[in-house]
Amino acid sequence: MGELTGYDILRNPKLNKGTAFSLEEREKYALVGLLPEAVETLDIHVERVLEQLSKLEKPINQYIFLMQLLENNERLFFKTVSTAPKKFLPIVYTPTVGEACQKFGQVSRRPRGMYISIKQKDHIKEILRTWPEEDVRFTVVTDGGRILGLGDLGIYGIGISIGKLILYTSCGGVPPEHTLPIVLDVGTNNEAFLNDPLYPGLKCKRIRGKEFDDFVAAFVQAINEVFPKVCIQWEDFPGVDAIRILNTFKNKVSTFNDDIQGTAAVATAGFISISRLTKTEFKKQRFLFLGAGAAAFGIADMLVSKFVKDGLSREEALQHIWMFDINGLIIAKRTDLLDHQLQFAHEGTSCTSFAEAVLQVKPTAIIGVSTVGGAFNQEVIENMSLINEAPIIFPYSNPTTHSECTAEQAYQWSKGKAIFASGSPFEPVAYEGKVFYPGQGNNIYIFPALGLAIFATEAKRITDDLLLVAAEAVAEQVKSEDFEKGLIYPNISDILEVSLNVAIKITEEIFDSNLATVERPDNIREFIKSKMYIPTY
After folding, report:
1. Would residue 531 show up in a list of annotated catalytic residues for this protein?
2. pLDDT tens digit string along 468-505?
3. How far apart are CA 408 and CA 492, in angstroms?
4. Rg of the Cα trace of the chain?
5. Is residue 164 among the annotated active site residues?
6. CA 466 to centroid of chain Cα atoms
7. Which of 22, 167, 276, 500 has the smallest number of CB atoms closer than 10 Å to its CB?
8. What is the pTM of this model?
């Protein structure tokens, strides 16, 4: 504990363990009299936290309580979250984190993470060096431009970066001292913030174009110089920016975009799982997307990779994927398409009704990445049920209010035939005497495991192949008895074990691809386990 004593220790969240300090430690660190008489265990502390949380009904209040706990006692926070991941992950991340970002100016207590303004472009290295940790391995970076389905939240988007890195630790075992949340402040187009005297970010419209790109490039160069082993995860940038940034840097530094690649991997995992458990060849699946933004193209590109890996040509694979955007079905004769949309533009008939597009395309699966709540209406689900014995319904938009349909709607309108997974969590649904357990295509199955593998191997690049291996590894862990309940993803209560197993597969691929910068160990499982953070006193 260095030279810290007394209140300095108790106020340091990394060192504080409250009444768990032994009598000897209390003497040694001048804590006698600063703590009650009892010497308690970590389990007792967790029990007390759970008791306090039970008295808070609103998720946002539970979020605030847990964030205060993180600022007070880091090990207790992570131990608490790990005791019941299924319960706590929706509080510390989606959907509650969306509300927390909206109210971040009201719920923030102690500064956590870094705010880098475009006005500070020429001083980024000096700013980064003020961070107290010298070996940052992961940073989650946002510009707050498109937070979940909530739009432009400016610098309050840092709540997403904080939440995401919490999951790296609680679900993947990445040591928290190696993580750094960052928001890049380039202004905001949120009129309410621009007119709010209490909004602490840049009071100007978002700076775009070359000035924005130069700022991002300066940031990437600076953070790789200050933290040479860092991996940059881009989060919640507007779609066109997200695609451009990823394509610019993915072959130059260790980086990925979870909205694009993480979402793609977890969606692909779901489809691989369904194909395996229904004993249907993956290459017979046919997909129709509602929404044609960054998330859609990330998923589509990975599905193409999987089709090719399973024996189709790229041209054949593309024919299995269709898209529908705000102007209707994307077909070859449309003249309003962007370059990256052209490969998914097929010969077809103009159609501005998604329900009609279902009948025209005849997909086995529909994927919602539109952020339009209720877009998968009764006609859509009934049409899917008309052409499929087991229609695959994936409303992936977050938060819950933006989900294209609810689990209950999918099961009822399909008369219990639907195979369902969503981006946000839904409660189990009873239909005609059977209970269905909705799957959640949560990126949490992918990025913590990817982070653990990268942390262990110090991988110099993150390739699409690594993400596809992660998707296949997630799908492998779904058991037949889970699928019979409607589950197509592993039990989230087992997320640490799932992440370990997925990380092992990714690590093997990293070594096989010569991407690691450490020597290959004899036992990869033990190697990975030795790198994991365990919250204990």
Report:
1. no
2. 999 999 999 998 888 877 789 998 889 999 999 999 99
3. 20
4. 24
5. yes
6. 16
7. 22
8. 0.91
